[in-house]
Amino acid sequence: MDTHDRRTFLKYTGAAVVGIGSSGCGTIKRHDVSDSDGIAVRIETPGEPLVLRTFMILKDRIEQRCPVRVVQADTGAQVILSVDDCLPHDAFCIGQVDEAVRVTGGSPSGLLYGVGKFLRTSRYDGAFRPSSWRGTSVPHGSIRGMYFASHFHNWYHQASDPEISRYMEDLALWGINAVMVSFPGINLHSWDDPQTGPAIAMMRRYAKSAGDLGLRFAIGANNMLFMDIPDHIRATRLPDPLRRRGNSGHPVCPSHPEGHAYLMENFGHLLEKFSDVGLDILCFWPYDEGGCACDKCQPWGCNGYLKLSRDLAQLGRRFFPDLKTVLSTWMFDTPPESEWQGLADYMSSGGEWIDYILADAHEDFPCYPLDVGVPGKRPLLNFPEISMWGNWPWGGFGANPLPARFQRLWDQVKHVVEGGFPYSEGIYEDINKAIVVQFYWNREQSARTTLEAYIAYEFGSGVSEDVLAIIGILETTAGRSYTKQPVDADEVRRARQLADAVNARLPDWARQNWRWEILNLRTVLDHERFAGDGLETPAAEAAMRRLIDLYHCQMETDDPYHHRVRPPLRGTSSRSGEL
Ligand SMILES: [Zn+2]
Q1: CA distances, 371 to each of 204, 299, 368 (Å)
Q2: pTM of the prediction?
Q3: 452 in a structural domain
Q4: Among 153, 337, 518, 577, which one is least packed by beta carbons within 10 Å?
Q5: What angle (nearest 5°) sits at the alpha carbon of residue 119, between those of residues 117 and 123?
Q6: How far apart are the CA of 374 and the centre of ligand 1, in A?
Q7: Residue 111 maps to a domain
Q8: How far does residue 231's CA lie from ligand 1's centre (Å)?
Q9: 341 C-alpha vs ligand 1 centroid, how far in Å?
């Protein structure tokens, strides 16, 4: 490894301006560092906890990738972290000040996003080579969320505090500014259930971790809280003739006076649990876990659902006066029953309690907001399903990158959508998360551009073309398998060979990264499934055991839903059956 004294840090020059926005941040230089003295970072607003946290994140990610120390120093700085409220709140600028690279955020949050860009555009091939990207970047989307479906004993449900905290840091570096978690009432009998306390504690940990990173914290709300409810207040089951809305959970009829009282009282108890850690966004959800088809509630989406959501919004604002609300229209008019039109009629003379409208579907985006407009002209959010399509169990065979699918879906809506909450069941869709969050940041950034940035940052230089080819084969294979078309076994073998070749070239830090592991394991399992002898080969079973370990799955479980998120390894079981 080359060694230089600290002053040589900034001598490597010559890269061009890239990126979006203005480039009024100074001249362009490129630098090389492999300095045993370390990298000096000056923090210009050290009193801000999130600025200091951002420095710690920068230090950790560089030191993870390079044998170099990153130290805080007031003199001789090679990197400067600063905040300037002349920039928009979440925006950042990366520029040059004499021989140092300065990352400036419009706020501590903007600085964190800028450090994310700086890290992704730096290089780590033995020596640290700081980013040559210069420019200003302003996010387009106002809510760049992520929905952690924290249930079924999936990774979000099981991960330790440090794991959750680190993963939220990683996603914040990509630009998220909000996280939503769900109360796993689908798994819980009542407040007295021994699992209820831990579930609340889990949600509070997410709230605290989000708050510490400057992210907004959101929870979902619907007409369901627990499994054990009096029979006479149970909702009327949805007909769901197209089998798209789901009938999970144990919903309550809010048109029944006792049902309404039950929901308000118990939801109030739930809100109280967040009174000290804060709640920023309440997201109302119509179907799957939710809905009622009784005469007084139907059509649910523009009737019982709106009345209940309005009452829950009022209740929520008693606890949190600045609470924002998102009204989801997921699976409205599936089948058609004038729910969209009913919502538009409602909002033409009211609905002031609704701040955002969320729309999406299992496949293509709903037509109504595209063709007619968003009811009440509210900002429109989407809810891309990044977890389930083309793989079952979800994440059961490793990573599920689907860049072409999400590019296609984004192109349908990028002119109207202002952010969203992708639906996530675990860490296996990490690539999809990065792609979608970067769409929210810059609606014109292609999935391929994000993928290239992801590969360079997470796997290092020199493997981009091969990893892109692997991801392309995995996505094609998933699509053909999902639509019951023949899978190209030669391509599956090629992906496996490419993964072996990449694996041999990766630096240790990348080879040991779970992100590479889950991608590599997916090529193993696709090979065994589609070009080998199936899922009971030693290679397949070893791959699934490793995934079970990474996801913190339970080999034996009492959770009737856990099999949905657990690799299908022989010998795993669900003691109380599977739903
Ligand atoms: Zn009802």
Answers
A1: 40, 22, 5
A2: 0.91
A3: no
A4: 577
A5: 125
A6: 26
A7: yes
A8: 13
A9: 20
